[in-house]
Specification:
By secondary structure, the chain is of the alpha/beta class. It is 33% helix and 26% strand. It has a domain of 167 residues: P-loop containing nucleotide triphosphate hydrolases (Rossmann fold, 3-Layer(aba) Sandwich). It is built from eight helices and ten strands. Helix 3 packs across helix 4 and helix 5 runs parallel beside helix 6. The radius of gyration is 18 Å and the shape is globular. The protein binds adenosine-5'-diphosphate and magnesium ion. Adenosine-5'-diphosphate (ADP) binds next to strand 2 and helix 1. Belongs to the ABC transporter superfamily. Macrolide exporter (TC 3.A.1.122) family.
Length: 246
């Protein structure tokens, strides 16, 4: 098995359990998840609705705390961190991409990215250039002044990927980033995420339901009822081709 020699584990989850809701209606949504994300890799996650994918992404991105288990991000154990320390860790190391883009409608593409930079304390004269560069890197150099209402779904998702990349986080977490897009735009967005993951300083994890996008995965994880039901490295085993045919 060959792996990029300089890839490294950037997120490590061990025995993650998450209980949601309040007694007597508590549900054990995650039932003991072990998962490592490596830089230089696109991991795609599949699983039925309600299986715990969004909950897991929220925990890996330090939005939710696990009920049990350990999470290490960029070498830092999160267990005893305060809310503020967790927020700092998230700002520095994690970028999110959502199904519904979550762009600010009154801000242009470049302003949306600058807002994300500002949240990471990157402002001043260099911020505009940095935001424009991020948009160029996702193929939107010609659309930096466009308003969200004038952009296609594919373009909006590219802006949201540029926004996630702003500040160079080491982890990108994307929750069904192609679900609101037609097949062609969905494939293009997933291909872009695969490119984003080729950066050896960064790991990308994306939830998908579209088997055709699996061809871009370095690793495919299946989650079922709060547990990891399968993990494949298709580029090594040839499995993606087989799965994409279904
Ligand atoms: N805040 C919450 N309170 C109680 N149950 C929740 C909450 N959020 C999610 N759940 C439940 O947790 C389970 C997993 O949800 P989720 O992680 O969103 O799954 P997925 O993203 O795979 O569809 C579902 O049964 C859902 O109803
Ligand atoms: Mg979900």
């Amino acid at each position: 098995m060959t792996e990029p020699s300089n890839s490294k584990v950037i997120v490590e989850a061990e025995g993650i359990v998450k209980v949601l809701g309040t007694a007597p209606n508590e549900i054990k949504v995650l039932k003991g998840i072990d998962l490592e994300l490596q830089t230089g890799e696109l991991t795609l996650m599949m699983g039925p609705s309600g299986s715990g994918k969004t909950t897991l992404l929220s925990i890996l991105g330090c939005i939710l705390s696990p009920t049990q288990g350990q999470l290490t991000v960029a070498g830092l154990k999160t267990q005893n961190m305060s809310k503020e320390q967790l927020a700092n860790l998230r700002r520095k190391h994690v970028g999110f991409v959502f199904q519904s883009y979550n762009l600010v409608p009154t801000l242009s593409a470049v302003e949306n990215v600058m807002l994300a930079l500002d949240l990471r304390d990157i402002n001043g004269p260099g911020a505009y250039d940095q935001a424009a560069e991020a948009l160029e890197s996702v193929g939107l150099g010609h659309r930096i002044n466009a308003m969200p209402s004038k952009m296609s779904g594919g373009e909006k998702q590219r802006v949201s990927i540029a926004r996630a990349l702003a500040g160079s986080p080491s982890v990108i977490l994307a929750d069904e980033p192609t679900a609101a897009l037609d097949a062609k735009n969905g494939m293009a967005v997933m291909e872009l995420l695969a490119q984003v993951a080729q950066d050896t300083r960064r790991a990308v994890l994306a939830v998908t339901h579209d088997h055709r996008t699996l061809q871009f995965a370095d690793r495919i994880i299946t989650i079922d009822d709060g547990r990891i039901a399968g993990s494949e490295r298709p580029k090594i085993s040839g499995k993606a081709v087989e799965m994409a045919a279904h």
